[in-house]
Amino acid sequence: MTTQEDAVRANDRNHVFHSWSVQGAINPMPVAGGLGSEFWDYDGNKYLDFGAQLVNLNLGHQHPDLIAAIHAQADRLATIQPAMANDVRGELAKLVTDAAGESFAKVFFTNGGADANENAVRMARLFTGKRKVMAMYRSYHGSTSTAITLTGDPRRWANEPADASVVHFHGPYPYRSPFYSDSPEQETQRALEHLEQTIVLEGASTIGAIILETIVGTNGVLVPPPGYLKGVRALCDKYGIVYIADEVMVGFGRTGEWFAYQAHDVVPDLVTFAKGINSGYVPLGGVIISQQISDSFDERMFPGGLTYSGHPLACAVGVATFEVFERDGIMAHVRDLGERVIAPILHGWVETHPCVGDVRGVGLFWAIELVKDKATREPLVPFNSSGADAAPMLAFAAACKASGLWPFVHFNRTHVCPPLVITEDQLRSGLAIIDDALTGIDASLQ
Ligand SMILES: Cc1ncc(COP(=O)(O)O)c(C=O)c1O
User: Fold this and answer.
1) Which of 49, 162, 130, 316 has the alpha carbon at shortest distance from 141?
2) Are 52 and 417 in contact (CB under 8 A)?
3) pLDDT digits (tens, 9 = 90+) for 61-108
4) What is the pLDDT of residues 383-409, one digit of tens each?
5) Is the beta carbon of 141 within 6 A of some atom in ligand 1?
6) What does the pLDDT read at residue 326?
7) Residues ≥6 apart with Cβ < 8 Å to 26
8) Ligand 1 centre from 273 Cα, in Å?
9) How much distance in Å is there from the Cα of 117 to the middle of ligand 1?
10) pTM exceeds 0.90, yes or no
């Protein structure tokens, strides 16, 4: 007899073409449902989601307020084209610009993060009249043409060349310093010197923008050392370069702030967002635009647009998201769990687990970096490894899943980035599962 699960699996394998995959090598898990920080399969196996899907499900599965917002908006006006004025679109744009800070004026809505970055770059190029864009190695900015070229990880390689005017540079990474520094302060100083040299050598007169993930996400939860972002801001001012903060993964509460740059005493010119704005219930992203850049388009056309820019269903969920954040004290919850629960446990693992080389993060956004040897810092698996080379990380993921935890795994790291609504008990039980799985890796190192 064919079960419902069999049918889901068969349709998926026969007709769905999946992202970033060798199509014949994958076996996607059929998901039957989800609630809050958990989802489950057709056999009733539950998984605590330590990746918040793709680090977008900030308010968790089936949040009643978000679902009610979709219902209410669908009953009122399910869609309207972007050239018309719409109540929820305008209301959300106001909420977002207010949250971003007083120098921001307007929001250009997109369908997600990649097209937010495409349009931020387009604005910066038109504003400065300069075409080159600088981006970091160890970064991800999306999979459309310019966004994938900006990306500083292996996902770019098979897509080259797409946008010839992109230059990569090294950002700070104290644990594996590309600058041979031995303190966060030295890392900041040397990383800024390297950035300035690259600007000068590439020609400041040719560089329109620098784009940075405020905290590098998938490529390692690299929290900038003190002063780095302020230094980037100063270099942008010195050389007439637009500073674009990619807050697609870290925006909307992931770090306990509306935007992660707010903890670094710095104000970008353009801020891109997606994911957490409405937990991905309906696709939505956008660019938050400074007053100055916005004004520059008052008398000339902005040559870009999308049929679904500011879709009312998506915006209605965004407005509801702001209400839930305020009413339920989500920011305070995130900061509390990060400081009181995650930080001490993870820092303890650096002492107790031979395989844990480094831990870093803030709020509900942490990385645990696994090594073969703490002294040499040799990664547990090689950079960009797959198949047999990645076996230790695959075994780690399998151990977590067998105990009911869906881990976020990338290269030699696992990240802790659950929905922001996770309870303390859930968080502690998930961390206990990771603790056990790490003990399994420790044993394999002996
Ligand atoms: C930092 C960052 N920028 C951009 C993107 C691309 O967003 P999207 O997948 O919505 O196009 C992502 C997605 O993971 C991201 O993490």
Assistant:
1) 162
2) yes
3) 999 999 999 999 999 999 999 999 999 999 999 999 999 999 999 999
4) 999 999 999 999 999 999 999 999 999
5) yes
6) 98
7) 18
8) 8
9) 9
10) yes
Tell me, using a 6 A CB cutoff, whether residue 274 lines ligand 1: yes
Mean pLDDT for the chain overall: 97
Place of tokens 């693992």: 349
CA of 213 to the centre of ligand 1 (A): 10
CA of 212 to the centre of ligand 1 (A): 12
DSSP 276: G
Could you tell which of 139, 141, 144 is best to mutate to test the pocket of ligand 1, judged by most ligand atoms within 8 Å of the CB? 141
Backbone region of residue 46 per phi and psi (left: phi > 0; alpha: psi in -120 to 50; beta: other values): beta
Of 254, 261, 249, 199, residue with least CA distance to 219: 249
Tell how far the Cα of 349 is from the centroid of ligand 1, in angstroms: 30
Structure tokens that stand for 112 in this block = 């997600």
Atom of ligand 1 nearest to the CA of 115: 11
Q: Is the CB of 225 under 6 A from ligand 1?
A: no
